[in-house]
Design brief:
This protein is of the alpha+beta class. The chain has six helices and eleven strands. The strands form two sheets. Strands 3-6-5-4-11-7-8-9-10 form a nine-stranded mixed beta sheet, covered by helices on one side. Strands 1-2 form a two-stranded antiparallel sheet. The longest helix is centred in the first third of the chain and has 16 residues.
């Protein structure tokens, strides 16, 4: 059974009217919960939705008419499992922080916590070094077109795909993509899924930040266009 994951904002939007309508009058003389308590409960519920059973978190699923294979968690480094971690930060919740050296992506949450995802990155020479960017747009099962530099660098590999590849299981961008812009210009760097989960934790991408499809789908549901992304290392 696949667990439906919600963003903290979505969880708060759902929880707020339900809790207020249910608790506005308790009938036993106790007071209604404060807005701060309602918000904290919603945030706690959102973090719990990250999941605790890796088998369920990385199970096979159908999405957009495409089949996503399960990740064999027996072969997965336990550190690479999506999880909530302590992460003191001055960045506001909803900010994405990518540590290219440790190969982790953090989605900042309230209360000095973050949801941590494992990622694959590009070699130093091709990694994003622009510091901060904005997630300008997001797409499900995106179409992929290699850049002219990629085709020039490796024509045998990228040349056959120079006109683009439609979204689907054979597309190297996987199930979701978050497009990084800086100074209102496309950086041509993306946070995206992958059809090669063995590349997670390695520096083998063409420069983008890749995630397991199940993880990028989770991130996609928690992020909105305009979110800040900080790339370190």
């Amino acid at each position: 059974m696949i667990r439906v994951l919600f963003s903290p904002r979505k969880a708060l939007a759902i929880a707020l009217p339900l809790l207020l309508s249910a608790c506005a009058s308790t009938g036993d003389g106790s007071s209604a919960p404060t807005p701060q308590l309602v918000r904290q409960r919603a945030e706690d519920d959102a973090l719990k939705s990250v999941g605790s059973d890796p088998v369920q978190m990385y199970a096979a699923r159908t999405d957009g008419g495409f089949e996503i294979p399960a990740i064999d968690v027996q072969k997965l480094n336990p550190q690479y499992v999506r999880q909530v971690v302590s992460y003191p930060s001055e960045e506001k919740p909803g900010t994405i922080v990518v540590d290219q050296n440790s190969r982790f992506l953090y989605l900042i949450q309230p209360g000095n916590k973050a949801i941590r995802y494992a990622v694959g990155v590009g070699p130093v020479a091709r990694s994003f070094d622009g510091g901060e960017a904005i997630i300008a747009r997001m797409a499900a099962w995106p179409r992929w077109i290699p850049t002219p530099d990629m085709v020039k660098r490796n024509p045998a590999h990228y040349g056959p795909h120079k006109d683009g590849v439609d979204g689907g299981p054979k597309n190297p961008m996987g199930a979701r993509a978050l497009y990084m812009h800086k100074d209102n210009k496309d950086t041509y760097y993306r946070v995206h899924g992958t059809n090669d989960p063995s590349s997670i934790g390695k520096g083998v991408s063409a420069g983008c930040i890749r995630m397991m499809n199940q993880d990028v789908m989770d991130l996609y549901e928690r992020v909105t266009p305009g979110a800040k992304i900080i790339v370190k290392g």
